[in-house]
Amino acid sequence: RGHTVVWHSQLPNWVTNGNFTRDEAIAIMRDHIHTLVGRYRGRIWAWDVVNEAIADGSTALRTNSFWFQKIGPDYVKLAFQFAREADPDAILSLNDYN
């Protein structure tokens, strides 16, 4: 099982400090997902595609993440779309707690 592909907590400084447009952020996420999931296509059977997307103590999306702020709430849907493109046969999950 692969954990985790998209997470607000683990991003390189060049991403979090960059002044990216929405389209550029989508391209960064797409390239990352296609590279990571595509590299292990057929070898990792399941992926936690998005990790901790829900705000602590809430039922709403975490709004203080890079992905939410740059792309908007549809970043979750896009992450799953890109993961499916990279490995059509993998089981895809959203991982969260509480």
TrEMBL record:
SMART domains from the UniProt entry: Glyco_10
Alphabetized GO MF terms: endo-1,4-beta-xylanase activity
Keyword Glycosyltransferase: no
Domain named GH10: residues: 1-98
Pfam families assigned to the protein according to its UniProt record, in alphabetical order: Glyco_hydro_10
UniProt keyword Isomerase present: no
Annotated keywords: Carbohydrate metabolism, Glycosidase, Hydrolase, Polysaccharide degradation, Signal, Xylan degradation
EC class of the enzyme, as a word: hydrolase
Gene Ontology BP annotations: xylan catabolic process
InterPro entries: GH (IPR017853), GH10 (IPR044846), GH10_dom (IPR001000)
PROSITE patterns: GH10_2 (PS51760)
EC number: 3.2.1.8
Catalytic activity: Endohydrolysis of (1->4)-beta-D-xylosidic linkages in xylans
Gene3D superfamilies: Glycosidases
Family named by the database record: Belongs to the glycosyl hydrolase 10 (cellulase F) family.
Protein name: endo-1,4-beta-xylanase
Organism: uncultured organism
